[in-house]
Specification:
Isopropylmalate Dehydrogenase, binds 1,4-dihydronicotinamide adenine dinucleotide, 10-stranded mixed sheet
């Protein structure tokens, strides 16, 4: 029976990488009935809303989404569609595996980068509670709860134990934010005590960034509050060839939405230059989630083959091909 999946192409390069990903998934022979719904600029034009109810209705039917990036205006304008979706559907885990693909010639190509980020996805400064106290003074409130911290820490440790990963590192700034990050850290320690087989470490976020660039091989599974998780994810992406590569999943108890780490890349949108690898790898996580492991593995092998060969890579990773030629190369290996 075909899987029903909600497809949200999104803004900017979103429709380009979504089309490429659909082609690859279909070439792998998985039966999927895509329910295409718009969020972002296309949705606003059609319905007046950036995040119309049709998105929630579709996800309520399918429980699984594949999503392209949706842009958010800077310093004003409408609130983030991405944050709203994650909060409303309680997609509390942001799971981002960061791994070097074979053959990629990055500055860090010689290092065996293979780390997994568990970013808390519903609170922290992303609660978006801001107000002007008096003219010239603005307050932005950081929310950290025991409930959310315990559940993200549990997911990180459960993953580490299940996949034989040796270490979980909690990243924080509890030397300064003693109460909020202090609570996050106490929750991580509490959960760590239930997993004696997994080593537990803590790092202050600024030092963690330096260590990640100097010694990425010392990282394994990372657990972070929302904002540090966001920033450290892009830093980690920089180690393995950039945002065109790294996939992600937003996971809740009932719904899962798979999306790349990258945004809508307005600088290259509509030019056929985007690297669809990150969304294709996100689709592989989706296929794992659906129990379609054989197809996921076939797609991963095809991607690795294209990277190892190095002839059809996109510009962001040093190649000269566009989205279509890269996708053709992946499809031809399937
Ligand atoms: P971005 O990730 O869109 O782009 C950063 C840089 O990476 C750009 O130079 C871009 O060309 C490049 N890049 C990103 N993805 C690429 C790909 N697949 N292939 C080749 N190059 C790629 O980040 P930026 O510019 O900070 O944000 C643009 C918009 O995206 C903003 O409106 C932001 O709010 C939104 N955004 C949405 C996200 C989501 O929907 N989950 C996540 C991050 C940002």
């Amino acid at each position: 029976m075909a899987h029903k999946i909600t497809l949200i192409p999104g803004d900017g390069i979103g429709p380009e990488v979504a089309d490429a990903t659909v082609r690859v998934v279909e070439a792998a022979g998985v039966g999927i009935e895509w329910e295409r719904v718009d969020a972002g600029i296309a949705a606003e034009r059609a319905t007046g809303k950036y995040l119309p109810d049709t998105v929630y209705e579709s996800l309520a039917r399918t429980s699984v989404g594949l999503k392209g990036p949706v842009g958010t205006p800077v310093g004003g304008g409408h609130p983030s569609v991405n944050v709203a979706l994650r909060k409303k559907l309680d997609l509390f885990v942001n799971f981002r595996p960061v791994k070097m693909l074979p053959g990629l010639k990055t500055r860090f190509a010689d290092l065996p980068v293979d780390l997994v980020i568990f970013r808390e996805n519903t609170e922290d400064l992303y609660a978006g509670i801001e107000h002007e106290v008096v003219p010239g003074v603005v307050e932005s409130i950081k929310i950290i709860t025991r409930m959310a911290s315990i559940r993200i820490a549990k997911e990180a440790f459960k993953f580490a134990a299940k996949h034989n990963r040796r270490k979980v590192t909690a990243i924080h700034k509890a030397n300064i934010m003693k109460m909020s990050d202090g609570l996050f850290l106490r929750c991580c320690r509490e959960v760590a005590a239930d997993f004696p087989q997994v080593e537990y470490a803590e790092l202050i976020v600024d030092n963690a960034c330096m260590q990640m660039v100097m010694r990425p091989e010392t990282y394994d599974v990372l657990v972070l509050p929302n904002l540090y998780g966001d920033i450290v994810s892009d830093l980690a992406a920089g180690l393995v060839g950039g945002l065109g590569i790294v996939p992600g999943a937003n996971l809740g108890d009932t719904v899962a939405v798979f999306e790349a780490v990258h945004g809508s890349a307005p600088d290259i949108a509509g030019k056929g230059l985007a690297n669809p690898t990150a969304l294709i790898q996100s689709a592989c996580l989706m296929l794992d989630h659906l129990g379609e492991r054989v197809a996921a593995t076939r797609i991963r092998r095809a991607l690795e083959g294209v990277y190892r060969e190095g002839k059809h890579l996109t510009g962001d990773v040093g190649g000269s091909s566009g989205t279509a030629a890269f996708t053709d190369a992946v499809v031809s290996r399937l």
